[in-house]
Amino acid sequence: MKIDGVEVLTEGAGRSAIVMIHGWPDTHRLWDAQVDALKKHYRCVRFTLPGFDAGPKRAYPFDELMGTLRHVVEQSCTGERVILLLHDWGCFFGYQFAIRHPELVERIVGVDIGDAGSREHRAELGFKGKFMVFAYQMWLALAWKIGERIGDAMARWMARTIGCPTDPRTIHAQMGYVYAMRWLGVAGGFRGTKMFKPHCPMLYLYGERKPFMFHSHAWADRLAEIPGSRVIGFATGHWIMVRAPGEFNQTLTAWLAETEKA
Fold it and tell me: How far apart, in whole angstroms, are the C-alpha atoms of residue 173 and residue 14?
């Protein structure tokens, strides 16, 4: 179906629905291996974030993105609470959605983005880590601003530099509008966002082989103490579901089964 101009794909059967949200520079195809592993027992709902597919240069206001996500959940999973499976910017948007609509979220799986940007996280990053975050994100914000062939080349160069497994032919500068919102205040930026504190069981999976983490140790420790929640590191980089799909899927399905019984 199409919801707010976004094509929403639903595959599988089961009582519970898993809504999958990707990040930069991906599309709904990021979750192919997870859909194959989960669709026998769950309804897998996925879509490509507005502006991450081919289209004119545009930044989507934060409230509009939140509205689209709510419509996707309400119209594709009518009358039920859903499980969120999130990665990268998908974590940011999914966490903010859970803050705004806790009544629509049953469980959360966050991949590689925790309390990024919090005071505790910034303290752990130190000067070098904070500079690295600023450098790659500002590069992508400028790629969006420049656009066209130069902007596309900048985005693909950055993806290649950080070891992104996504097909470079699908990567373009328009995907970077989220960074332009973050650093340049485009489309109103991210005013009104809040620091995420899980209200439900959460599985947090992160890659250990990165120059810096997107969560603080204190946040991960607190999360692990919440009943039904777990924190697990993988010997991979940022794209765990692509680099270690078998281990990722096994961990995910085991936690889903465990919390389903609980």
Answer: 37
